[in-house]
Design goal:
The protein contains 10 helices and 14 strands. The chain is an alpha/beta fold. α8 packs parallel to α9. The longest helix has 14 residues. The protein starts with a strand and ends in a 13-residue tail after the last helix.
Length: 277
């Protein structure tokens, strides 16, 4: 399985996942034209994508979904409530494939496992994706107000984890946001702070974890190096030796080949060194 984060943040989110000859997008939060541009940067034709999985109705995850679906004939996978909340983006001639927030479904050899999250959307989910061919698992949770027991279970045993580290608490309360927005972000239906993300990553660590990507960073209330430092310190405590990356808003992150990470990262009891690349 290969994963390319095309961009992540309050201005847009979209992730390209490839496995077993199948390509899908998870979310389409940029304009259709911008997603085409970013796909071109990583050498992927939009026509080669076999579906777009939408996690919830917020614009930074849905903005370009209708345009892409119509232009390239791409099926849209979303829950019924999310579809209803996104009517303004749809014209009625898109191919809609409804899924339930608690029932797995497959797109080719990619098995998608949605699960409910706490976030201020109508029907928010995060997902894990398993690749039958390589036996790898990808966990994606980019809008998560509070990690619950079910979230921990769903993300467990991920080879690669894409997790939001949205804000630093002190920076959030000093950010140029209205007070109501600050309260929403910090609430149990808002976004994860660096510290909460660090605690969750430490809990989810297991010897087969090969990569962690911090996503959905706030430009006004976080700093990439700060997020990396906070989560990196937590990973040091469990002797993590995989990669720790931070996804940006403006350009795609390097493509991550999960099976290759498995080959290049080895754990030894006598070698607790952490490799943060």
């Amino acid at each position: 399985m290969k994963v390319t984060i095309l961009g992540s943040g309050s201005g847009g989110n979209s992730i390209l996942v490839e496995g077993g000859g199948t390509r899908i997008l998870v979310d389409a939060g940029f304009s259709g034209r911008e997603i085409e541009r970013r796909l071109a940067v990583v050498g992927v034709e939009p026509e080669s994508i076999e579906g777009i999985v939408i996690t919830h109705d917020h614009g930074d995850h849905t903005h370009g979904m209708g345009v892409l679906a119509r232009r390239f004939g791409l099926p849209l996978y979303l829950t019924e409530l999310t579809r209803d909340a996104c009517r303004r983006l749809l014209r009625g001639d898109e191919e809609i494939r409804l899924y339930h927030s608690s029932k797995p479904f497959s797109i080719g050899p990619l098995n998608v496992h949605p699960f409910l999250t706490l976030h201020d959307a109508v029907d928010p989910v995060a997902i894990s994706i398993s690749d039958e061919e390589s036996g790898t698992k990808l966990g994606i949770a980019t809008d998560l107000g509070r990690p619950t027991a079910s979230v921990r279970h769903a993300l467990s045993h991920s080879d690669l984890l894409i997790l939001e580290a949205n804000h630093d608490e002190a920076m959030l309360w000093n950010a140029p946001y209205p007070w109501s927005v600050k309260q929403r972000i910090a609430s149990s239906h808002g976004h994860l702070s660096n510290n909460v993300a660090a605690d969750l990553v430490r809990e989810l660590f297991h010897p087969e974890m090969r990569g962690v990507v911090l996503a959905h960073l706030s430009e006004a209330a976080n700093d990439p190096e700060l997020a990396r430092e906070v989560v990196g310190l937590a990973l040091e405590e469990v002797s993590y030796r995989g990669r720790l990356l931070v996804a940006g808003q403006d350009e795609p992150l390097e493509t991550i080949d999960i099976p290759s990470l498995r080959e290049t990262t080895r754990y030894h009891e006598a070698d607790p060194q952490l490799s943060l690349l």
